[in-house]
């Protein structure tokens, strides 16, 4: 009898954790950003229309979902414009704190790219993996980029980060990093190879991702 009670408790705990995970994901998907947040982004990126800024907000939700699905591991931000919006959101201190608590059960800190070091590419691999799965893209053989990896190039941002789904299909000479090279056999998107197979240099136009968060 004690064994059955213990087994039942374990099953109930697992079910509760699964329900909580699903509820947090739904909260992130349906979250309404603070009024005025997109107007703040307009001051930073005046060339973006309201529709464009709404797309950036959608991409930021995708980034938060990636963090949630990665079990709060360290991840890196692949888009400069989405990073801009994240910064603006953090400045809404109470809103951001409440959002983080409900979405993750903890505060998601922003770590500058310069402080991430080698973790930057590892974090990008995780983001690539989960962002692809979120959009039903094969992370090993992508035919397109997930939104987070596509926006900077979509608007040709001078300080943006640029990627191609698969560099075997890339014929230009510009600095474009290969999404497929972020793939590893690890379902969590991590890699046993510490070398930079994606050719990421980090920072500046044509770099390979900005700051990140998590891992605490």
Q: Would you spell out the secondary-structure blueprint of this structure?
A:
Elements: H1 2-30, H2 37-44, H3 50-69, E1 75-76, H4 80-91, H5 93-104, E2 110-111, H6 113-116, H7 119-134, H8 147-154, E3 163-164, E4 177-178, E5 212-213
Parallel strand pairs: 3-4
Antiparallel strand pairs: 1-5, 2-5
Describe, in plain words, how this protein is organized in 3D.
The protein is mainly α and about 220 residues long. The chain has one domain. Helices cover about 50% and strands about 5% of the residues. It has helices at about 1-30, 35-45, 50-70, 80-90, 95-105, 115, 120-135, 145-155; strands at about 75, 110, 165, 175-180, 210-215. The longest helix has 29 residues, at about 1-30. The chain is globular. Residues about 190-205 have low confidence and may be disordered.
Could you name the key traits of this structure?
8 helices, globular, 216 residues, 50% helix, two-stranded parallel sheet, 5 strands, mainly alpha
Largest sheet: 3 strands, antiparallel
Number of strands: 5
Low-confidence stretches: 189-207
**Share of residues in helices:** 40-55%
> In DSSP terms, counting alpha (H) and pi (I) runs of 4 or more, how many helices?
8
Overall morphology: globular
Instruction: Give the averaged pLDDT, no decimals.
Output: 82
Give the structural class.
mainly alpha
Strand order, largest beta sheet: 1-5-2
Query: Rg from C-alpha positions?
Result: 18 Å
Task: Work out the oligomeric state of the chains in this entry.
Answer: single chain
CA distance, first residue to last residue:
40 Å
Domain count: the total is: 1
Q: SSE order in H/E notation? A: HHHEHHEHHHEEE
> What is the percentage of strand-forming residues?
under 5%
């Amino acid at each position: 009898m004690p064994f059955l009670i213990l087994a039942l408790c374990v099953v109930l705990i697992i079910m509760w954790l699964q329900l909580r995970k699903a509820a947090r994901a739904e909260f992130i998907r349906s979250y309404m950003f603070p009024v005025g947040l997109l107007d703040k982004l307009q001051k930073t990126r005046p060339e973006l229309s309201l529709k464009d800024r709404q797309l950036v907000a959608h991409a930021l939700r995708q980034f938060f979902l990636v963090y949630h699905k990665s079990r709060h591991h360290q991840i890196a931000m692949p888009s400069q414009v989405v990073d801009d919006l994240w910064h603006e959101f953090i400045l809404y201190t109470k809103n951001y704190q409440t959002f983080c608590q409900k979405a993750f059960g903890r505060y998601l800190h922003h770590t500058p790219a310069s402080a991430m070091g080698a973790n930057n590419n590892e974090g990008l691999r995780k983001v690539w993996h989960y962002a692809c799965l979120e959009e039903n893209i094969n992370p090993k053989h992508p035919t397109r980029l997930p939104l987070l990896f596509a926006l900077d190039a979509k608007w040709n941002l001078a300080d943006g980060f640029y990627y191609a789904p698969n560099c075997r299909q890339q014929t230009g000479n510009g600095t474009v990093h290969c999404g497929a090279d972020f793939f590893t056999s690890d379902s969590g998107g991590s890699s046993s190879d510490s070398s930079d197979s994606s050719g990421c240099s980090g920072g500046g136009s044509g770099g390979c991702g900005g700051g990140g968060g998590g891992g605490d």
